[in-house]
Amino acid sequence: MGSDSSSEDDYNRKIEVVFDSETARRRKSSFVLTDQPRVDKSRRPHAERAKSQCLVHQIVEKTKVESELEQIDEVEPSVATESIDREPMLGKEENRPVESRLLTKKQLSDMAISVRALAKKLGNLKVRLKIRAIFLLTKIHDKTLIVKTREVARWLLSRDRSVPYIVYVQDILQENPSFDAAGLVAEDPSYGERLKYWNVNLARRRPHTFDFVITLGGDGTVLYASWLFQRVVPPVLSFALGSLGFLTKFDFDSYQTTLSQAIKDGVTISLRLRFEGTVMRSQKRHDDADHRDIVEELIGEEADDRKTHVPDGTFEILNDIVVDRGPNPTMSTIELFGDEEHLTTVQADGICVATPTGSTAYNLAAGGSLCHPENPVILVTAICAHTLSFRPIILPDTIVLRLGVPYDARSNSWASFDGRERIELFPGDYVTISASRYPFANVMPPGRRSEDWVNSISRTLQWNSRQRQKAFVEWDGENNETKEANGKNPQSDDNRQDKKRGGQGHPGWHQE
C-alpha cells in the first residue's frame, strides 16, 4: 500500500463479500445428509409410464428442478427399507422427490423462482389442452349434485363430442341410485368402456392418469381436489354450486358452452402457491437430559450421531396449516422458527399459516390480511393471542417455518392441514412449513385476473361496501361577493334557491 494516506483510505473503503457454500448452513433437525444418497427406483425394471397429455404435467417435469437438487435421506437405511417393502407397488414408477423443507436456502429460492416463472408463462397464455381422460369430482353426499354429475358425465360421453373422452367418477357412485351408472351404460353400450371410477389411491399415486379435472360444488370441493392430488395437479375447472365462490369461477347453467370453449379455444391457467407441511416427531433417547429445550435442538449445528427428530407424514395444502390447542382447556404455547432463527414464542389459542389463496379463509377470520393469490408470500396470524402486540406478519415464500411445542408446555397441541388430518403434537414435536414445488393449477375465466379477484372479494365478503358519501354543493364565492356589492343578501338568495330545490335551508335556520 505504501505510506500514502489516500491509498490507505481507498483500501479501507473496499468491501469483500464472501458467500458461504450451499452446504455450509442447513436447518437443524430437518436434514440428514448421506454420503451416498438413496433414490427409490421403480419396482418394474425398464418400465416407463405413458406420457401424460396434460400440459401442466409436461411443463413441471421439464423444469428440471429436481435433477439439480441433492438427494437427502432423513431415516435410517433399515427403517427406509422396511417402509418401502410395506408400500404398495402402485405409484412407484417415479423417483421419490426431494421435499422442499430439505433444500438449502439457494435451492429453495431457485425452486420458487422456477415456479413463479412457470406461473407467469401460463398466466399470459391461452393453452389448448390435449384432453382425453377427465376427472369428475363432486359432493357425494348431495343428491342434487350427484344428478348434475351424471348430466355432465353423460354429455362428455356422448357421441356428439369430437373426442371419445374417458370419464372418471368416484367409485362410490358406481352403486349410487341417483347416479344410475347401469342406466347410463344401457343408453349406449360404448359408455361402459369409457366410464371409469377413481379412488383416493389412484388420484394420489397416479395423477398422470388424468388430463383435466372438473369439480361441481363449492370452495370445499376444490380444496378436496387439492388434497387428492398431493403432487402434480391437472388443470382444475370449477363450477360454482356452493356457498362462497372464491375458487369456483364458472356458472353451471352454461356448463356445455364453458366446456366446449375450454376444449376448443383453450384455457387460462393460474398456478396457486401450495405449502408442504411435515410433522416431525421428537425422538426419545436414553441419555437425554432431564430438561430438553426445543429451541436449542432446532437451531445451531447438529451432531452427526444425534438426530433429535424424524418425519411422520407430509401434506400438500392449498389454504392453511393451523396449530391450535384442540380440545385442551388451556391456551397453546408454540415456538415459531424461521429458517435458522427463533422468531418468537406464541401464546394463543393457536397460529394460522396461510397461503395467499387461503388469506380469505381462517386467516381472515383470525384478523389476518387479504392477499392477492399471485403474491409469493406466507401469512402468519395468531388466533386469539394472549398479547395485544402480536400483529399478523407476511414472510417470503423462500423461508422455511417451523412451529414447535416446547418440552415444558402445559398441554399438547393439534395440527390440521386444510382442515383435514387432525394430528396431535406432543411436547418436543414440531411442524415444518415451506413452499411446495407442486402448485395448484386453477382454470380461470377469460379476462383480467386481478380484476376478477377484487370482484370476488367484493361479491363474497362485501369488501369495503357502504353507501357513497354525498357530494358538497359548490359555493360560488364570486357571485356572492357581487351580490353583497349590489346590496343583496346572499344568504336570502341561497335560501330561496334551497326552497326551489325542495330543501329546507340550513339545518340551524328556523323556517316560518
UniProtKB/TrEMBL annotation:
Is Transferase set as a keyword in this record?
yes
The region called Disordered is annotated at 24-50, 471-512
Q: For this chain's UniProt record, which GO biological process terms are given?
A: NAD+ metabolic process; NADP+ biosynthetic process
The family database entries (SUPFAM superfamilies) matched by this protein are listed as: NAD kinase/diacylglycerol kinase-like
Tell me the domain of life: Eukaryota
State any single GO MF term.
Answer: NAD+ kinase activity
Q: Where is the composition biased (Basic and acidic residues)?
A: 37-50, 480-501
Kindly state which keywords UniProt assigns to this record, in alphabetical order. Answer: Kinase, NAD, NADP, Transferase
Q: Which HAMAP family does the record match to this protein?
A: NAD_kinase
Family per record? Belongs to the NAD kinase family.
Protein name per Swiss-Prot or TrEMBL: NAD+ kinase
Q: Which organism is it from?
A: Exophiala spinifera
